[in-house]
């Protein structure tokens, strides 16, 4: 994403509060969920439906190469989910505006959307750096502090570059959900010391690593962008993996005590060439 820095602030992304972990941000993400107005759509003459479908399929095909994927939604929450990965918010907005000009848009009812950016949390690196700075007597917020933080970010950004701008995995199934870290009278994630949070996140990550190869997980940050704090995308060829992974994660401390989950959306991926099959009321092929 473009980095628009305020005048007079050399490092606006560097936290002064040592309890705030460093993060890396990458691609901008938009999830769009729709319900098809089936009665209106099926009431059109066949020739008109064919023309609208061909127009939409052509546009969707061109967007697929830029980081767009379509999913047939399972369940009552909607029918169609479009997921877009783009370099920045302007390209996301250009994509949704382009889609809104299609004839098909008249027959799609927005049900939900979600805006976020790929986020890699650096709890472990942050804690190690804090220990090093404390040993050297470097004061939080000082120029030396900020420089050390910036150097750590640059080093991690280079090492994790492929993860910051991922392609949408080609897996057949997607599970997407937003989540928060609990903030209540008895459980407040943001009042815990950073080393406690780092320990719990490390344990949380161990569960996810067990499923490497069976599921691809992409975490995105949405604080300041949408109604929840993070978005989670899980991609797999076997949807039962979603249940097993999320169920097991519920038992670790970070989730059991501090996680709050939003609505879950499950979709079956299909290419633009299968849009006509989807709009005919059949499950599209891969």
| Oligomeric form | single chain
Strand content: 25-35%
Give the C-alpha Rg. Answer: 21 Å
Encode the helix/strand succession as letters: EHHEEHEHHHEHEEHHEEH
CATH class of the domain at 27-117 and 269-279: Alpha Beta
Contiguous uncertain segments of 5+ residues: 1-9
Strand order of the largest sheet: 1-3-2-9-5-7-6-4
Q: Summarize the main sheet.
A: 8 strands, antiparallel, barrel
The rough form would be described as elongated
Mean pLDDT comes to: 93
CATH superfamily of the domain at 27-117 and 269-279: Apc35880, domain 1
Fraction of helical residues: 25-40%
Q: Could you give the distance between the termini? A: 31 Å
The assigned structural class equals: alpha+beta
Number of helices: 10
Number of β-strand runs: 9
Descriptors for this entry?
26% strand, 9 strands, Alpha-Beta Plaits, alpha+beta, 38% helix, eight-stranded antiparallel barrel
Summarize this, please?
The chain is an alpha+beta fold and 286 residues long.
What does this structure look like?
The chain is α+β, with helices and mostly antiparallel strands and 286 residues long. It has helices at 38-42, 46-64, 89-100, 123-135, 143-159, 161-164, 194-210, 240-249, 253-258, 275-279; strands at residues 23-36, 68-74, 80-86, 108-121, 173-181, 216-221, 230-236, 259-261, 265-270. Among the domains are: 27-117 and 269-279, 2-Layer Sandwich (Alpha-Beta Plaits), CATH 3.30.70; 122-159, no CATH class. Strands 1-3-2-9-5-7-6-4 form an 8-stranded antiparallel beta barrel. β2 and β3 (80-86) form a beta hairpin. α4 (123-135) packs antiparallel against α5. The two termini are 31 Å apart.
């Amino acid at each position: 994403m473009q980095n628009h820095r305020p005048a007079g602030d050399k490092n606006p992304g560097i936290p002064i509060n040592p309890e705030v972990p460093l993060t890396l941000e990458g691609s901008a993400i938009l999830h769009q969920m729709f319900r098809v107005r089936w009665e209106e759509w099926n009431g059109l003459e066949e020739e008109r439906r064919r023309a609208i479908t061909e127009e939409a399929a052509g546009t969707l095909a061109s967007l697929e190469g830029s980081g767009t994927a379509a999913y047939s939604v399972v369940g009552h929450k909607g029918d169609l989910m479009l997921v877009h990965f783009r370099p920045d918010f302007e390209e996301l907005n250009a994509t949704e505006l382009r889609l809104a000009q299609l004839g098909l848009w008249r027959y799609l009812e927005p049900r939900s959307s979600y805006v976020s950016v790929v986020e890699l949390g650096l709890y472990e690196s942050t804690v190690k750096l804090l220990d090093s700075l404390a040993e050297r007597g470097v004061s939080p917020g000082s120029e030396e502090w900020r420089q050390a933080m910036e150097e750590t970010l640059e080093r991690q950004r280079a090492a994790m570059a492929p993860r910051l701008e991922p392609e949408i995995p080609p897996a057949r199934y997607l599970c997407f959900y937003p989540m928060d870290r609990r903030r209540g009278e008895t459980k407040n994630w943001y009042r815990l010391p950073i080393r406690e949070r780092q320990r719990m996140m490390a344990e949380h990550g161990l569960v996810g690593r067990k499923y490497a190869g069976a599921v691809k997980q992409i975490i995105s940050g949405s604080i300041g962008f949408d109604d929840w704090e993070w978005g989670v995308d899980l991609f797999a060829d076997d949807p039962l993996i979603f249940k097993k992974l999320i169920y097991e994660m519920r038992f670790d401390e970070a989730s059991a005590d501090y996680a709050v989950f939003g609505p879950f959306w499950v979709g079956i991926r299909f290419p633009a060439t299968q849009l006509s099959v989807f709009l005919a009321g059949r499950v599209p092929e891969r």
